[in-house]
């Protein structure tokens, strides 16, 4: 796509001003590039902004998934940026969404990012031209929509906006209420009701714990090989997957049947990029965003990068690392491989995943234990600073505790001693 050498290009467009977008903006500016972040909301922070706003109809989109009373399921000690950790005067390790939002605001102020952020500006179309990108931006303040031109695109729109709803027999027969966790806001709505929660990931477990304090009874449906600890939840019954819904409830795959008033689907989200034209060269098939090199660089148009697609990772650190990784190529410090080399690398990595049992495309960006090899790859390939060992050790210490130690794990307080060591104590 480029006639001008990549290292001579200067203008950076960042789509979104959440955790990933702020990192893309800050690192681009520090690399000497001209960067602007477009945020369709009225403030920065992305998914960490709590709003009681709900969709008026099935066609309206709600951006944030934040609900009342949420506390992080990772300690703040691993949630900061590499060069900007959370302040040590916050005693708790597992903090509120409001504290995360305040931290993101302080990050923007510390690095003087606000002059480079355009709030209530929505990117509605991005398409490649011969030598750059045409970006149509809708200014909600003035109700105007004009094209702007950029050399690089960072797609940082998050992936907690479009719910991934399962298809289960009889869903349309059930006469109770059905919602996705995306629009769950308060447990009070379920007072004295019977509720089925589908999914036992971080959201499913946490929302079950919230709702069960108000509800008459909660059924938690999942297919985890090891049952999570719900012994402390006296009114929660674990169930296998739903076989089919009935008018008043559901029949489960073990043949049991239950009745309930509400269903909450905690079934995850779809990667969605509605502003990207088809000639961008990216497609999403069963949540596999492809073709991407190292889960971030668009192989067909490598001056575009996607930040934050991998999951089961250390979120803020991986965002920052992906940005620093891509900037090494964008500034000319490192040479990108050829398209053929990048495709071969992608096919090799996906082949390894399929051999390890990751045959589901929806898990194409799942990391888990693979994340540590991924961090090493990015660092070794470009010479960027790797994630500190203490952060990796902290992350391993927290693994799966949101499932098996839900009632106690947030009582732990962590203290980082140095780049290698931390302490942990229970309240």
Automatic annotation (TrEMBL):
Transmembrane segments: none annotated. GO terms for molecular function: flavin adenine dinucleotide binding; N,N-dimethylaniline monooxygenase activity; NADP binding. It is an enzyme of class 1 (oxidoreductase). Keywords: FAD, Flavoprotein, Monooxygenase, NADP, Oxidoreductase. Its cofactor is FAD. Signal peptide: none annotated. Pfam families: FMO-like. Its EC number is 1.-.-.-. InterPro entries: FAD/NAD-bd_sf (IPR036188), Flavin_mOase (IPR000960), Flavin_mOase-like (IPR020946), FMO-like (IPR050346). Belongs to the FMO family. PANTHER family: DIMETHYLANILINE MONOOXYGENASE. This is Flavin-containing monooxygenase.
């Amino acid at each position: 796509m480029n006639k001008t050498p990549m290292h001579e290009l200067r203008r950076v467009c960042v789509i979104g001003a959440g955790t990933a977008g702020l990192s893309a903006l800050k690192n681009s500016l520090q690399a000497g590039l001209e960067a602007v972040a477009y945020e369709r909301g009225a403030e920065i922070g992305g998914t960490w902004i709590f709003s009681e706003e709900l969709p008026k109809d099935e066609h309206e989109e709600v951006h944030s998934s934040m609900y009342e009373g949420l506390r992080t399921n990772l300690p703040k000690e691993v949630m900061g940026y590499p060069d900007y950790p959370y302040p040590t005067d916050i005693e708790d390790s597992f903090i509120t969404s409001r504290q995360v939002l305040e931290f993101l605001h302080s990050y923007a102020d510390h690095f003087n990012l606000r002059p480079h952020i355009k709030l209530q500006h929505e990117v509605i179309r991005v398409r490649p031209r011969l030598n750059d990108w045409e970006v149509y931006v809708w200014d909600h303040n003035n109700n105007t929509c004009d094209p702007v031109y950029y050399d690089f695109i960072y797609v940082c729109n998050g992936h907690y906006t479009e719910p991934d709803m399962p298809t289960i027999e009889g869903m349309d027969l059930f006469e109770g209420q059905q919602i996705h966790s995306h629009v769950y806001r308060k447990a009070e709505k379920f007072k004295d009701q019977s509720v089925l929660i589908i999914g036992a990931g971080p959201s499913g477990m946490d929302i079950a714990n919230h709702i069960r304090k108000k509800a008459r009874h909660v059924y938690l449906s999942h297919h985890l090989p090891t049952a999570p600890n719900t012994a402390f939840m006296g009114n929660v019954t674990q169930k296998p997957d739903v076989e089919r819904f009935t008018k008043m409830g559901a029949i489960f795959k073990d043949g049991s049947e239950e009745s309930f008033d509400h269903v909450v689907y905690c079934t995850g989200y779809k990667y969605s990029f509605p502003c990207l034209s088809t000639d961008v060269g990216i497609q999403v098939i069963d949540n596999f965003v492809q073709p991407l090199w190292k889960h971030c660089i668009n192989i067909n148009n490598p001056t575009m990068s996607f930040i934050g697609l991998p999951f089961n990772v250390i979120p803020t650190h991986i965002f920052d690392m992906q940005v620093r990784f891509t900037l090494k190529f964008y500034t000319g410090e490192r040479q990108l491989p050829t398209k053929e080399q990048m495709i071969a690398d992608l096919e090799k990595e996906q082949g390894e995943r399929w051999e390890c049992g990751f045959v589901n495309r929806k898990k194409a960006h799942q990391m888990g234990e693979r994340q540590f090899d991924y961090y090493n790859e990015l660092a070794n390939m470009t010479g960027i600073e790797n994630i500190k060992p203490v952060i990796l050790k902290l992350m391993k210490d927290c693994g799966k505790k949101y499932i098996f130690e839900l009632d106690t794990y947030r009582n732990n307080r962590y203290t980082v001693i140095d780049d290698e060591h931390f302490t942990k104590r229970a309240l």
